[in-house]
Amino acid sequence: MEPWNVLLASHVVAALFVLAIGPLQMLRPRRDRLHRTMGYLWVAAMYYVCFSSFWIVSDGHFSWLHGLSAFTIVTVTLGLVSAVRGNIASHRGNMIGSYIGIAVAFIFAVTVPGRAIPKLVSEDPISVAFVCGLVVLTTVAIFVSLKRGDRMGVTSRTVVTAQASAARVPDSSEVRERLWKARIK
After folding, report:
1. Secondary structure element (H or E) that encloses residue 25, with its range
2. C-beta separation of 104 from 68 below 8 A
3. How much is the pTM?
4. What span, in angstroms and rounded, lies between the C-alpha atoms of 5 and 124?
5. Angle, nearest 10°, between helix axes 116-123 and 88-111?
6. Do residues 133 and 20 make contact, with C-beta atoms less than 8 angstroms apart?
């Protein structure tokens, strides 16, 4: 296994983000805008984890984890397509299966001696705890922020409409009417 570098560190952070979002997505009862937005973040992070894994090799060779990454790319894509088409059962199955796959890969990466994560945990546990805490806090902050926007009924259309009405220029009849009223006073 190669030493820590930006690719490996970003791969681990994205994987932790995926692991943190997964339960939020599966345990929430509603399937609303918050679920969709968090889902898009989850899919993007999952694709990053899978594709970046192909540049992380042990002794120049691929392992079964790379096969799992290829399979996960397919299942995440099928889950996304299923959601868009409204096939919720297929969407649920593919996404939960993908989550189980990354959980298995995480367990392997953490428990097998000689890999980068167990070495880092034994050499610098404070940094590991800090990064894990930061990922969890970021996930919670994104979730709470999106949930607050849902509760307030704020959508991109609402914001655009508010900006357009605030920047609206009065037409000539309104200007004449205002001038006329001002002259009368």
Report:
1. helix 6-27
2. yes
3. 0.70
4. 15
5. 60
6. no
Structure tokens at 136: 């969890």
* 185 residues of the chain, pLDDT tens digit each: 556 678 888 888 999 999 999 998 988 877 788 888 899 999 999 999 999 988 887 777 788 888 899 999 999 999 999 999 999 999 999 999 999 999 998 998 888 877 777 777 778 788 878 888 888 888 888 888 888 876 666 555 555 555 555 556 666 777 777 776 776 65
Q: How far is CA 74 from CA 11, 69, 97, in A?
A: 19, 9, 11
The pair of structure tokens assigned to 43 is: 């899919």
8-state DSSP, 121 = H
Query: To 5 degrees, how large is the angle CA 16–CA 21–CA 25?
Result: 155
Per DSSP, the three-state class of 168 is coil
Instruction: Extract the tokens encoding 171.
Output: 């037409």
Per DSSP, the residues of 46-83 read HHHHHHHHTT--BTTB--HHHHHHHHHHHHHHHHHHHH
Q: Are 20 and 136 in contact (CB under 8 A)?
A: yes
Domain ranges of the chain: 6-155
Cα gap 65→50, rounded to integer Å: 9
